[in-house]
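Reviewer comment 2.1 asked that we show a complete input and output for one of the modelled complexes. We chose the nicotinamide-adenine-dinucleotide case, as it is the one discussed in the main text.
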Amino acid sequence: MAMTVKICMVGAGRVGKNHSDAIMGYVPGAQITAMVDPADAVLQATADEYGIEARFNSLEQALDRADFDAVVITTPTFTHRELALQAAAAGKHVFLEKPMAMNLEECDAIIEGTRKAGVHLQLGFMRRFEPEFAAAAERIAAGEIGDPMMVKSNTHGPGLPPAWARDLRTSNGMLAEVNSHDWDCVRWLMGSDLNRVYTEIADFKGKENNVDTPHFYDNVLVNIRFESGGIGIISGICPCGYGYDARTEIVGTKGIMQIGELKGQDILVCTNRDQGLVIPIQRRWQERFKQGYIGEFHHFVECIQKDQTPKVGGAEGRMAVAGVLAGTRSFLEERPVYMKEILEGK
Ligand SMILES: NC(=O)c1ccc[n+]([C@@H]2O[C@H](COP(=O)([O-])OP(=O)(O)OC[C@H]3O[C@@H](n4cnc5c(N)ncnc54)[C@H](O)[C@@H]3O)[C@@H](O)[C@H]2O)c1
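Response of the prediction step:
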């Protein structure tokens, strides 16, 4: 029988809780044996909810005192490099949430640190494990819609992200926090790297939400030219108010493929004629991508048990960060930005 993979959850916030739910509820090959968060109230609440006894305020303490094979890092972006390197140096496999890091130097350090330590590195791109995204990617690669010509990928979220996540200095802002998945998916589904991007941003709700971080935006639209000659857009809105909306459309030379829908449940309700028909919408990312979160941890655990390389790792994380940096430079400098400016450090 395969060994049970023992996991230390690093970060007990929104995603730490979401991933604890996926692992403890649906991944029999894994067990969370320790949890880390410097915010004690958050740590106690999440650890209580999932019955995790070994609780620490730093990864260092957990490495000293607890028994585990891997870490799942669900902390703010600016902490990713240090935590991933610390875990790798101690011989722990690393599952790292997106965005991989703040810049390409940090991504390279994580790739090199995990490689040197001989541990696996998987990035938290759960859409790759969400059944309809995975099926679409396979069918596009098999040529079902011909050569991909155009992609439209949107992620619109209902609420304002935490303060660190909307600040360019600690997260690279919404293009990173909300649209990391789009940067990864458009490359994956189009089967091509990006060549050039041009970004427009807008701020409609910052004032009413008392946001005073420089360059804050709550709407973003990126135009993309791919190396293949294809074109595309990424759109982000947060907070959009109406629910959680992640939909992608790819048009090929022979046909079209649409992934996802606004509708959240297969139910229509009508209780009075003034209200009309009510169709429930997707409300939260935790529900929208539940299968993807479970799938990504099944994969991570299997890769550790069978000593196989995860199918989404540092290279993909690094390219998504490069997209974020190009997209951000584009709106700051009000011009199209070539990916090679970022990738070649110009
Ligand atoms: N895959 C997804 O769908 C998805 C969704 C939302 C967020 N994220 C990503 O997950 C990560 C966390 O986001 P979140 O929304 O949970 O943030 P959050 O602010 O809700 O939680 C982060 C937690 O990390 C803790 N923390 C900070 N420094 C730490 C350290 N050194 N060691 C241990 N814990 C530390 C904080 O105290 C906090 O409780 C980010 O990288 C974010 O971009 C991914």
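Residues 314-333 form the longest helix (20 residues). We note this here for comparison with the apo prediction described in Section 3.2.
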